[in-house]
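Methods, example record. To illustrate the input and output format used throughout this study, we show the complete record for histidine kinase. The sequence lines were provided to the predictor; the line carrying structure tokens was produced by it.
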Amino acid sequence: MKRLLYFLFFTLLSSKLFSQIQPRDQSRNDSLLIILRQGKTDSIRARAAFHLSKIWINLDSARGLEYLQQGNTLSKGNEYLNAIYRYQAIPSYRDEKEVNAILAIFRKYDHPDAWDYTYRVAINRVRWLINQALADKALAMLQRDIMPLAQKLKNPAYDAEIALEMGRSFVNQSMYNEAVPYLEKAVARYESIQPKEENLLYNHIHTLGSLANVYNLLERSPKADSTIRRANELLLIQPNLAQKLRITSFEAMHLLQNGNYQKAEKLINHTLDNAKGVPPRYLLNLHFQGYKARAGLGDKQGALRLLKKSHPIDSIHLNPEKFGTVDLSELLPTYASAYEQIGDHKQATFYWKRYIKHRDSVSKDQIATQISKLEVQLRTQEKDAAIQHLKAEQNEITLLLKNQRIFTGLFTAAAILLLTLLGFILYIYKSKQKINANRIHQLETDNQLKVTKALLEGEERERQRIGRDLHDGLGGTLAGIHIQLSESQQQRQGPTLDRAITQLEGSIAEIRRIARNMVPENLFHKGLDTALRDLCISFSTTETQIEYQSSGLSDNLSNSIQTNLYRIVQELLSNALRHGKAKNIIVQCIQNEDTLLLTVEDDGLGFDTQNKQNFQGIGLKNIQSRVNYMQGQYAIESAPGQGTTINIEIHVS
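The corresponding predicted structure is encoded as:
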């Protein structure tokens, strides 16, 4: 009940200004009355009562409260409807606990109606926070609670309201340039909504007034003029005395800025004549513009009289019901300036001192300087020279500081330039070092490849020479001895001679095999694929099976690559038989375009790849040298008792 009494108090204050005989939308009012009387459920009837309360609360407060109480009675403990009642009955959004309690109820329900009520409660709380200069809390609530709801509701009027409140938050912090884009966005959104309901038109005019005020403060005369003109056009569509008074005060402010004091005073007086009976608190701003118009016309005494009449400073803050909430931090300096204009420095000093005491947040240094100046004027004129001397010293100090700032700036710029230059030189030096290191590494690699190539080519030539010597020299000699022994066997037979011939035949076969391995004639006549296949066959025995697999081998491989691959396979097969005691060996040679893969896998004894001593043999070193020469890669996979697999990959382009 206490909440209702507060609510009644505030609504009665405004009822004189906004009262009408009937609501604007009478058909909607009649439809809601029918639902209230004939609704099928109490919930439906309660919702109708709440809507009727919203319609009538500013037209006939007693009737609006009657509908509100009727809706509460019909709610019968329904949590959601009770939250609607509490939302419409809340006397002030200062009560953060009550606001949060209402929001907590609406947030339980995930449907558009609940979202809408959540938005309305939250936006009203934001307005209160902005009016209390709590912009940080207001902006946080806008971003956290209100903007996500507006995106879900997709109501352009809500987008306009959010932009308006963002703009107001900056205006209250005197950040007018930052406020302009938000207020302009709000006006554009309201302009886009057609047709306009009564409350939308009211909000549109109100937003235009806020934007015109900011344009005035920033002295953007053409924009202020067009904004005020648009607001007056809308007031012709829907007259509203409260908005008319507000827009007129901004129009007068605009005229005063342009020096049209007489025109401004005429507009103000005409508006005041048509606002008889309006509570003074709605006319304070208009009266204040009248004071400035009279002062602008040179009537300083008349201006002070108008100020005292409209803003009686000794009683205005004691009668909030009549004058509303007046910020003395603005009124006290105005009084001080008015007395200073008429030369009453004693009274001016008095109000400046009151201002300091009332509003500590205002720049004390500036006001203290003003007070000191007035007190000096009251006491003597003798210290004017001293003041001028102090000003001259201050100018000298300011000039000195300015020169020091310039010198510091130049020194800083020079230091930055020097550091940049040093950094650039260091970068070039490091780059050249890196290039030289890469070049040296490349030369070393090239030299190593040349040495490897020379060694391999020398080794191959030596193999061919030894092979030819064995085949043509020792092989031919042994063949001749074999012929002679065969002729002797025909003339004279004996077991010793037979054994000698048999051993000689074996020696001749072994020499030919060695010569063939050292000089693989079929490699150059029939190609790598055939040579490797024959090599695998030649190494195969009754105890060791060697399987050869190949795919895609090109006939255009260089002799160098073919020879090195042949020698690698030859060495790997020899190692598998001699050291690995392998029983089964698989040799795979596969070419895919420019990539050739060679794999030799056996089931021999294997070895520990982590033991570096196992890699000290000449055979593996030769394999490594040949792979490096062909600029390939190879990997060994082995473990004791698990055989050995060697994979080699080279590019043959």
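Annotations derived from this record:
Residues 1-21, 361-378 have pLDDT under 50 and may be disordered.
The radius of gyration is 52 Å.
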